[in-house]
Structures are given as structure tokens and as C-alpha cells.
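Consider the following assembly input.
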Amino acid sequence: MLDVVDLSAWYGEAQALREATLSVAAGEVVTLVGRNGAGKTTLVRCLMGLHKQLTGTIRLDGRDITSLPAHKRARAGLGWVQDDRGVFANLSVEENLLLPPKVSESAWTLEQVYDAFPALGSRRRAGGTTLSGGEQQMLAVARVLRTGARVLLLDEPSEGLAPVIVAQIGDIVRTAKQSGVGVLLIEQNVRFAATVADRHYLLAQGRLVESLDNDEFVARQDELLEHLGI
Amino acid sequence: MNAVLQYTVQGLAAGSFYALAALGLAVIFGVLGVVNFAHGAFYMLGAVAAAVLLDTVGMSLWLALIVVPLLMLVFGMLVERLLVQWLLPLDPLYNLLLTFGLTLLLVDLVKRRYGVSGLPYERPDVLSGRIQVAGVGLPIYQLFVIGVALLVCLGVWLLMTRTRVGMIVRAATERPELAGALGINVGRWVTPVFGFGVALAGLAGVLAAPFRAITAEMGSDFIIILFAVVVIGGLGSIVGAVAGGFLVGLVEAFGQAYAPTFAQVLIFVLMAVVVLARPAGLFGREEATA
């Protein structure tokens, strides 16, 4: 579904990504694990069209989207949840949900969103950033589900959240997976990653150093933790 | 007491011009990130257009209040397409310089065509004279200006809070990159928003035509006060622009009444105090830097 071939990215002279090749299939959850500065966020920003100094090819359903502007990539089916959640303070909870246009038939209705996230329904008129951190994360994820995005790019959704909330996020990711959505999950929380993902890519110094299925990943968890320094 | 009422109306009327124009400045800054230095010149053009249309085709103030802002909308959209747009990817300073240059150009063109002595504008009879309120004779025209300004501000507020366009503008103002990544074509809104902001300046100009001296330079002091208004209200804040406009109008009116030598200074003292107490302005949001 999402295919990335030989993606390299630079900030001026400094190379942040080196020929990363990866793919996410429909109904597959893939994590990108690596320490701070490894290039995880850069990779997602490249996918979303927000970082432009790059070479390589990005395809969605076989269509080359490498040179599309961000809003067209979103409309093509990429749903981005940025690392700081990206909830609009000047928009109410409901407006945050309604802002992005629907991109496919599998879009959730507002009722479905409020059923799955009761906390959002009861605060629908409240300002987006009056929600707690966990609720804002729910809102950011619900927002891309409501568009019917076919590939979710989740940048550290568990960061700074209580274990209960992290478990809830895990449930949402599994629900999305079951409906055939592909998920690229950026994580530093290796334990959380192991509970939701099918496969894992390890990113170090801008290079994809390993690709593991979840069993291998779990078996080598301690070694990986040390290797990643997290 | 009578004097207080009189100065209040006078201040609110003066504030109406600031509020309308600052509203335009705020939406432009919000969506484009451009500090539009030419806003004072656009205000002046609105007044000049109203005077010229009255003189040449006998267009009434009522009609001018609709026609001139529409003309300014088109003019603003042209300016954005032809000039401002090319500099948007660069440092915002370039557009500040561009619009400053545009100001000089427009002012000199108007001077060349219509001279420096000022254009006449006769106020419609219904809006002339005074009306007795609580024993005080209040100028009808000032009340009219306040009424129009409040109506337009209310309209803009409804547009911003109750429509999808308003929602997109708010989102694009707050986080343009994120709005784009969520599928909003922010670029599509840039030209109409600029035109809309210019139209508001034009509307303020039309309202000022029967009230102020219509000269090529009338926007020059206006823009300086306007910057104080948006700093006080909070740059990019819609509510702040309106509140700041009326507040500055009041300070100006009471200043002129009770401390005429300090009237102008007072506005900037107010600005300094606000900036010291709340750097983002009265209604501005502090930048959320994690």
C-alpha cells in the first residue's frame, strides 16, 4: 500500500536519512523504532510532503506521490498524527474532527467517533487544547480515522501518556488494522510497539539497520533496547 | 458626565475605523504571515475612491459602502497575485518592504492625480447634525460609523466562527503546515483572504470620507496607530483587533480632551504597558513552545 524506495533526506549539508526502503501493507501495523535523532520524524515528514530536501520515491497504492504537496497526499489517503498531537486550540473538538476532508468511503461518522471515544463526545464544544494530553491524542487519531485515511502515520502516539491511555491507543490501532488500514507507527516505547505491531524497522543514524517480525523483535527485545539506547 | 458621553462616542467612532482596518490587518497576518504596511494606503484609497465616485458619477455614500469595498477586494486580490505571492516563501521582511514601497507608490500616485489639498465629501443630510441623547447632542454620523463597524465586526465574527471557511481560516492561521497535512489547500485561501483584508481597509476608508480630510497622506498616521492597535490586541487575533481598535479610539478621544499634548503618546504608552504585561497582546495566544 505504502512503498518507500531509497529515501534520503538532508537538512542543508547534513544527511538525516540514508536510502531508507520500507513498505506498509493494508491491514498491517509496522513500527519504526529508533532513538532520538535517528531520523524517524524526518522520515514521516518526508512521507507527508513537509520535508522537501529529499531523493527517492514514495508510492501510495502504486501511485508516485513523491512530488505532491502535503494537502494532496492527505487527500490521497495518508493520515498524519504529528508528535505533538497537533490539536487546534482555536477550533472546538468537533471542528478539529470536521476540519480534514473525507478521503475515502471508509471514513468514520461523527457518531462512530463519539461511540469509540466518549470523552470527545461529551466535550465536543470545548476548545481543542482544553482536553487532557491523552484526550488530545485520542482526538488527533480520531481526526484521521474520520477522514477514512488508508495509511496512518502515527508519530509517537504513546509519548508522555499514562499506561491506561497507551493501552487505549493500542486498541484503536488494532481496530484500524482490522478495517484494513495500514499503520506506520513511530515508537520509542518498545514494549508498546511489541503489543500492536506485525513488523518492525530499526532506524539508526538515518539508516534502516534491521527489519524484524514481531516474534524476533520480542525475543531480542533486551538486546535491541541496549542497541537503541532507549 | 455629558462630556464623558460625548468623548466616549467620539472615541468609539474613531475606534471604529481602527477596528475595521485592524480586522483586515489581523486576517492577512494570520493567514499569510504578512505585515501589510500598505493597509493605511488601502484605507486612503477607499476614501479617495468614495470621493471620486461621488464627484464623477454621483455615487451615494450608501452605494459606495458596498461598491468600494468590492473594488478594493478585487484590487487586493490583484496585488496578492501579482506581487505579494512571489515573496511569500521568503522572509516576511520582504513583504513588509514590498508593501511599504507600495504605500509610497500609491500615495504619490494619488498626490499626482488629485493634488495635496484634499478632496471634498459631503455627508448625506440624514447623517448630518446631532441627536439629543440624555441631554447631550451627539453627532449622528459618529453613531452611524459605530453602528456600521459593530455590524461588520459581528458579521466577520459569525463568518469566522460559524462557517467552514472561517474554520479553515482559523486552522490555517494557527498552524498552516498541519492544516495542509490534513488535506486543506491553504494556498487557495491566501488570495481571497488578502483581498478580504484590503476590502475591510477600504470600507474603513469609505466611512472616513465624510468625516476626515481626504488626502493622499491620510493613511500615513493611520497605519502607525493601526500597528499599535494590533500589538495591543494581539497580532493575528480577530477579537483583539476589534477590542484594540475601540480601546485605542477611546484613549485617543479622552487624551485629546483632557491632555491634548499627550494624546498620541498615550496610545504608545498603552502599547508599552500591554506589551510589558502581556507580550502577546490582550487577546493574543502565547506561542506554545514545548
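Chain A has one domain: 2-228. Ask yourself how this observation constrains the way the partners meet.
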